[in-house]
Amino acid sequence: MRIATYNINGVKARLPRLLEWLEETRPKVACLQEIKSQDDGFPAHEFEKIGYKAIWHGQKSFNGVAILADGVEPIETKRGLGIDGPKEGEGEQARYLEADVGGVRVACIYLPNGNPHPGPKFDYKIAWMEKLRARMAELWAEEIPCAVVGDYNVIPEDDDVWAPKAMAADALMQPESRNAYAQLLADGWTDAVRTLNPRGGVWTYWDFQSGAWQRDHGFRIDHLLLTPELADRITAVGVDKEYRGREKPSDHTPVWVEIAAAG
Questions:
Q1: Cβ-based neighbour number of residue 13 at 10 Å
Q2: Rounded distance, CA 7 to CA 192, Å?
Q3: What are phi and psi for residue 116, nearest 5 degrees?
Q4: Per UniProt, which keywords does this protein have (predicted)?
Q5: SS3 178
Q6: Does 251 belong to an annotated binding site?
Q7: Cβ(131)–Cβ(82) below 8 Å
Q8: Is residue 70 marked as binding?
Q9: Is 152 a catalytic residue?
């Protein structure tokens, strides 16, 4: 079972790339972030044409998450973490969606960026991470195979970025951000990519600016965290880097983990 995450940076703008990737790699579950589409505008029919069923949590112009499953209907178990955005009266942003697929609970997250730091957006980021940790503790307590995947907007270690000094002032690398992520690992969750790449040096994001892609100035912020039931069954992980270099790509690239069948 291949579980993948892909910050698509606009599901309509990147639809050709997304369909191309789905058909060429065929993950069982694909979690999307930054779909940037209202619920009624999500192109579910395009995915159905190639055999994928979808659920989604949209928002106009910003954010938005979706879970696609190959040949089966994702059974939604939760949407949202019950935390309002940083602006007064804004309400909850579309950043969390959870479903059961093939005996596995999959949560798709788009964690707040947090810039500029310091400020209300960074405070919101840390508060959101606290809510996420609480939800992950609930999932852990259920003792079910679970994967919490997506754009965490956290660079966990210095070897997860091309140049630590270049990102030192960014919200993605602040001690509070890194500590909140480290707490999830301390709770027992396994970082799938780090497990098979202990020396780091794996990027999942390259900015559109300053020739970052051409110069390989990237960093790792797209993560797949697994409960022990799944972590023990990891057979492979990968970053589909080539899709970042194709025409009109997202600034992220797909990341995936392969899980062996139980028993």
A1: 14
A2: 17
A3: -80, 150
A4: Hydrolase, Magnesium, Manganese, Metal-binding
A5: helix
A6: yes
A7: yes
A8: no
A9: no
